[in-house]
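Q: A reviewer asked whether we had any structural model of the full assembly, not just the individual parts. We don't, so I'm hoping you can provide one. Inputs are below.
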Amino acid sequence: MGTLAAVVGFAVLTPMVLVLFAVVSVTSTAIGIGAAVRGLTRTTRVAHRVPVPGKDPAHRIYLSGPVLRDVSRCARAAVRAAHSRLLALPDQEGPESLFARLWRRQSIRNHDGPLILPPASVAGGYALGFATVVLLIAMATAVHALLAGLVVLGVRTTACVLRRFEITAQALRGITTDCATCQQRLVRPAFACECGQIHHNLVPGDQGVFRRTCLCGRRLPTLLINGKRTLHACCGLCRSPLPASAQSVPAVHLPVVGGTAAGKSAFTRAALTRLNHAYTASSLHSILLGDKHLRRLVHLYDAPGEVVERTEHLEVAAFLGLAGGMVLVVDPHARIDQKTVLDRLVETLAETRGTAIPLAVVISKADALPPACHPYAGVAPDPSARSMAARQWLLDHGRIDLLNSADNHFTQVRYFVVSSQGADVPGDDPASPVLWLLGLPPK
Amino acid sequence: MMSCGPHCPTGTTFPVKALRRGRCAHGRLPRARRVCPACARAVPREYAEASSRAILVVGTDQAGKSTWLAEIVRQLSTGEIAHTVPGLSVHLLGDSSRARYANLDAPTTEPLLISIRRPGAKPVVLALYELPEDCPPDLFGMAAGVVRLVDPTRLPGVRRLFGLEPLHPTSPWAHRVPVAVTVSKLDLVWDMFDNGSPLRRPSPHGRDYVESDGLDVHHEVEAWLTRWGGVDLPSGHRCFALSALAGGYRVADPLLWLLTRFGALGVARGRS
Ligand SMILES: Nc1nc2c(ncn2[C@@H]2O[C@H](COP(=O)(O)OP(=O)(O)OP(=O)(O)O)[C@@H](O)[C@H]2O)c(=O)[nH]1
Ligand SMILES: Nc1nc2c(ncn2[C@@H]2O[C@H](COP(=O)(O)OP(=O)(O)O)[C@@H](O)[C@H]2O)c(=O)[nH]1
Ligand SMILES: [Mg+2]
Ligand SMILES: [Mg+2]
Ligand SMILES: [Zn+2]
Ligand SMILES: [Zn+2]
Ligand SMILES: [Zn+2]
Ligand SMILES: [Zn+2]
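A: Here is a predicted structure for the entire assembly that you could use as a starting point for your response.
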């Protein structure tokens, strides 16, 4: 008898449970998809209103993670509801559960007379029912979590791929973000929203795939192709603005070095004038050079002579760490030891980026030399012949140590003779050392 | 060890290994130099990373060690040596070496760090220590080469010739390391050699060290040293003679020979 009832009960109950489960999953999935579609089209301002340290001041997008938290919240709420309806003990607040009602009735019956049903089996049935409900919730939650997880994964993967894409594209084009003011290479530029808050990591991420919403409500593009190019970039360390071309043109840092009063500032001024750039008395000049085949954002550092003459200054002069080439200005009249100047520079370069860069040796103040003693006296105006003549001139004036050391350390060395005063003095174009270092043709 | 830069609120030192993408633990640019963890002195990177070799310059007091060091570094760095070895350049590593070179007479055991470069060859970093002859023997264990300067005017044979009183004998040479036994102040005993002596011809010029000339000098000086007496010649030694005054004469020979032993300089066999 008992076995037959069990078999019949199983045969009837199993399809019923399955149908019930299917209905529950389909409806809940439909609701979930609806929520997801709504979530995709609209940013829900669920996240932190106060800026989180280490995070940019922007809202988090719902589908990048918070949705999962809601799925689990939802499941927990469902289990709690089923529990309070079925099994909660009578002394708990809220509406009475089935079990509480049964328990109350039984305690009444105990006074009134015998029970019709054994209360223990009814309570067991409630427990079984609760277990079934929990199982159903678990199944539905699993389906939800799977779907939401897929969506979250998709959003995050898209953001990650886009982020990688932009980083790789910039790297392939040789574009780095360097702050010329604090002379450091940055991971990426920072961007200031119109509200004044700084976004340090304006890239696709969990705060927005294509755009993000600043805490002030403004929408900011996260990709260069999406309009980030037009935002005002700044240095995340010192907040000084970066040139507009910093995000699209590779930067080259060229320190102009030499002893005190070697003529560095005069040379820089003459070179900038030749390159049609206004000269201001500062130690940093950023200019855009080249044509559409080879465009470079050039940062010329006119380092004061005492920086190079004191190691304790040189070791904090970060510009050498970024140098893509160097101009060494040699005053032919100076009594100071040019070799020691070069030694200190080479040592500092070796500590940071190595000496695998080209070096332009510029003999300055050529107008002050007697014409017969001029390095280019009787030399054809061909760049390499002139470089050889300038080298020979230094050799003849006892600077073989300088020449050999330059040749042995740097990848390429070329010699120039420049006069910053007196236009009719034979010599090289003051811009030619800079153009040569950049690999650009002379003017 | 490295130290935090000027932009860093906490100016501390930290091990080089703690460097993250060239930044200190606080994310700032560190100072562009390394310091010794024990004495906080600057350690040039080239010295720390290249396989540097210690060369001990030993000799009795007034043997001419400082004078020889000054002259060899001067010849190397002013490029005078470049007439012997074309394209060679020398770089005094670090401010302490430059200060040491500027004042070689100051009594100190600080080494003189130099890096020698030639086109197409790996740089050689040498630490030149000027030490008294009776320095602790364990120092010889770490040395890649020893230049022992011998003042000829202290040797019994020379003193007899010049009619000087003999000095009390110095303690015997007990170290078993290959040594460049070098007679200094050659100009003082110049007249003792006849015109055919290999010491009378200047060192040969060329890209490589000329082994035959070195051997000629070795045999000649060895013979003279045995005749003069007073010097123990250890096994594996090579003899040289030089004068560090008046522009120098054969000054670089011991160093060039040591460089060939490190494989840093080629050897030309046969007479050039
Ligand atoms: N005759 C002549 N004098 C020059 C030339 N270039 C520079 N001078 C002079 O050299 C001196 C130093 O020139 P600066 O350009 O200021 O030298 P600097 O290298 O910038 O010096 P610091 O910044 O102090 O290290 C000035 O008196 C210039 O007039 C030149 O081409 N010809
Ligand atoms: N004539 C001559 N004198 C030398 C030579 N080298 C060194 N001296 C002299 O020897 C003395 C001691 O030299 P120094 O280098 O201070 O010896 P150190 O004590 O070994 O460092 C000085 O007075 C030098 O002038 C040399 O080659 N020829
Ligand atoms: Mg200046
Ligand atoms: Mg001395
Ligand atoms: Zn804003
Ligand atoms: Zn900055
Ligand atoms: Zn720090
Ligand atoms: Zn130390």
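A: Points you may want to mention in the reply: Residues 64 and 184 of chain B are 7 Å apart (CA to CA). The helical segments of chain B are 45-49, 65-77, 94-102, 138-142, 156-162, 211-228, 253-261.
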